[in-house]
Fold this sequence. Notes:
It holds the Pfam family LysR_substrate. This is LysR substrate binding domain-containing protein. With 169 residues, the protein is an alpha/beta fold. It has helices at 2-6, 53-56, 69-80, 94-102, 149-160, and strands at 12-16, 25-40, 62-64, 89-91, 108-111, 123-127, 134-142, 164-165. The strands form 2 sheets. Strands 1, 2, 5, 6, 7 and 8 form a 6-stranded mixed beta sheet that branches. A two-stranded parallel ribbon has the order 3-4. It starts with a helix and ends with a strand.
Amino acid sequence: MVASVARGEADLGFTAGTVGTRDQLSFQALLDDPFVAVGPTGGLLAENRPYALSDLIRMPFIAMAPGTSVRELLDGACARIGRQLEPHFEVSHLATAGALVAQGLGVSALPRLTLPVLGSRDLLIRPIADFGASRRIGLVWRSGRTLSPPARAFLKLVRSAPLQTVAWS
């Protein structure tokens, strides 16, 4: 989506993360999506409590592939606690991560809003006590470009809304 906006193919786009160092783009944060631990029922996350990231990455860990925004945030969280992630599996699709976890092959750490992609599997979802970051969801547009009236109205509406955090429930 960011590339489509940068090329002028789209006026606005929703994205996870920020737009990096692209000078020509602006970003409006909409909400923060915290990471949660995901495990198989009856497995490694059976205790209903928050888990430390250092504990999670010592378990058989299923990670998103390098280069994804989810993996970048996970690697950054590991660096903040002085650890390096050594996953048992690296996958390109969230549904694959969910399937591997559901089969009892390990645990994962994923943004809360991605959980519906995992399907209706019986998974345990637990807070991560010390992740220290969340995935920022926002709107991106080209700076200095005149937006269409509908795009301007939508951007104005988005800017008027306070930043949200996805609640733990």
